[in-house]
Amino acid sequence: xxxxxxxxxxxxxxxxxxxxxxxxxxxxxxxxxxxxxxxxxxxxxxxxxxxxxxxxxxxxxxxxxxxxxxxxxxxxxxxxxxxxxxxxxxxxxxxxxxxxxxxxxxxxxxxxxxxxxxxxxxxxxxxxxxxxxxxxxxxxxxxxxxxxxxxxxxxxxxxxxxxxxxxxxxxxxxxxxxxxxxxxxxxxxxxxxxxxxxxxxxxxxxxxxxxxxxxxxxxxxxxxxxxxxxxxxxxxxxxxxxxxxxxxxxxxxxxxx
Length: 257
Description:
Helices cover 80% and strands 0% of the residues. The chain is mainly alpha-helical.
């Protein structure tokens, strides 16, 4: 069966999905969090639950390209402290998906994203000196990693919307541009791959969704190259402002739909 016929996707609808896939590539190598726009496009063109299953392999393709680009800049102490909390969040998100309808999921994720953006803006306004990423080993750093990790795992499982949550964490921890991108690249590659069995078990990934992914993944590559070209032309302050703005826009999109 033709996948586009299965979901009644028009030519314009496929073009919108292709643009969203290109934006995924760009966000993975330039402005993390911008793919919340992709999430909204996928959910608008496809059934909401099906859209998360189609989007996941596209995100993994972007993660692979991001790791290849920024692998030398990852901060592994941060990653190791995040993973246990993220695993708990993924399990909680899976249980949440069993009973929550699309409206509850969207409202919950939108509220969390806006809260994270607000907390980050407040911290940046009140903090005199940015934190050092190496401070993640302190008691306060571990507590913050656990809270953001659970939220990140939960949001990435229920709506592929963990990017903005982790963006807020990495910004609040004082990561500079390349360290930010390298750490988030490995983080999301590992987390998104680990989500595949859960998504398949929920029926969100199947043969039809993978056929559509095969057509869309080719658009991730030019987006990633565009992001790699752009990131070296964006200064640190503008980079942080774009990440926060993308988070706010994504949260509003989810909350107001």
